[in-house]
Design brief:
Elements lengths: L1 H13 L2 H16 L7 H18 L3 H7 L5 H29 L5 H5 L6 H26 L24 H7 L4 H22 L15 H25 L26 H9 L8 H4 L1 H20 L3 H7 L1 H27 L6 E2 L4 E2 L1
Antiparallel strand pairs: 1-2
Length: 361
């Protein structure tokens, strides 16, 4: 038992967001540039390891209570589905890269000659899938209660009050940004960024088949946004956010009386009060001069510096317009984890705080 409690304490510690999110990012990028995780043995090992982790963890009453809640069961299934399809896509990409390195064509080139009729080949497969999924949903509805609650009562609000799972990422972002920024600007930029990808990335290599070698940066950035900034946020909101919106480890009891002091502080307070030992200036531009200077350097100067150093190859290949649009979208996306990490580690509330105009970043 002491060993089990020790291991649970380690998992609870690692699952703190300031460690968990960077750890997932490091594991993801290490795996992307490796070969073994995308082989058959590697994929089976990963899937079995995750399944064993969940199976053993279900013996813990606190973990079982959260993971087996009717709302959360589909999220557990989503973890396995995302892992499988990520592995399947990368497996095909790595296979094609290996074939091309040997002077062969991609697998999709040989498959394109194997044609079948829509009727009956495709329709039969779709009919079988329809029957299987219908049977699964019937069994699901019999054994798993619908997550329905009593009629809304303003005197007895649920704690924690969570959004539907597909909005948990947005709800998590609302913790760190103003509502107009987290609910309007950032989602809009994500949609615009996805729409702009075909116009920004005009590399003809890799079209029509799975490949990682020809699309390293594009795939890495996409997976960073999809897995780290969306799936991981849903995971945090589902399994680690408990009463009073506090973070809890997977094996911790969700104590509704847990209180964590929030001593959040703005950059302006750090500069004027903590560093210069003086009061905050009344004029908002002078008060927020440090935060505004940082944002200016980050969004205006940094793309120019990158175009002459790390991203020089992209600047020459894409041209100024596409490069600056793509680089700006990337920096805005990276601003979100930076802000979250600063909140978790330094209790930083806002980089720029101008409540006079509801402009807080």
């Amino acid at each position: 038992m002491p060993l089990i409690h020790f291991l649970q304490a380690i998992v609870n510690f690692v699952c703190k967001p300031q460690y968990f999110v960077p750890l997932v990012a490091v594991v993801l990028f290490t795996a992307l540039y490796s070969r073994w995780p995308w082989t058959g043995k590697g994929g089976a090992t990963i899937m079995i390891s995750v399944a064993v982790f969940f199976f053993i963890s279900y013996f813990d009453p606190n973990f079982r209570k959260v993971a087996s809640a009717p709302d959360n069961v589909p999220i557990v299934g989503m973890i396995f589905i995302v892992l499988f399809y990520l592995w399947y896509a990368m497996h095909q990409a790595k296979e094609n890269d290996a074939r091309i390195a040997q002077g062969l064509g991609p697998n999709e080139g040989s498959d394109s000659y194997q044609k079948v009729f829509s009727w009956p080949d495709l329709v039969y497969i779709e009919l079988i899938c329809l029957l299987l999924v219908s049977a699964l949903l019937i069994v699901w509805s019999i054994f798993l209660k619908a997550p329905l609650e009593e009629p809304a009562n303003p005197t007895n609000s649920p704690n924690p009050a969570k959004a539907p799972w597909y909005f948990l990422g947005l709800q998590e972002m609302l913790v760190y940004f103003d509502p107009w920024l987290a609910g309007v600007v950032l989602p809009s930029l994500i949609i615009v960024g996805l729409m702009a990808i075909p116009y920004i990335d005009v590399n003809p290599k890799g079209n029509g088949y799975f490949t990682f070698k020809e699309r390293k940066w594009e795939i890495s950035i996409f997976l960073l946004g999809f897995l780290i900034f969306w799936i991981v946020l849903i995971f945090l909101g589902t399994f680690l956010r408990g009463p009073n919106w506090n973070f809890f480890g997977p094996y911790e009891y969700w104590d509704p009386n847990k209180l964590e002091p929030l001593n959040n502080i703005n950059i302006s307070e750090l500069f004027w009060v903590k560093l210069l030992h003086t009061g905050l200036p009344h004029f908002f531009l002078l008060r927020e001069v440090v935060g505004l200077a940082f944002m200016g350097l980050y969004l205006v100067v940094l793309p120019v510096v990158l175009s002459r150093t790390l991203f020089r190859r992209f600047y020459e290949k894409m041209g100024p317009m596409r490069y600056y649009v793509g680089c700006l979208l990337l920096l805005v996306m990276l601003l979100m984890p930076m802000k979250m990490f600063l909140r978790w580690t330094l209790n930083l509330k806002y980089i720029v705080a101008i409540p006079e105009f509801s402009f807080n970043i």
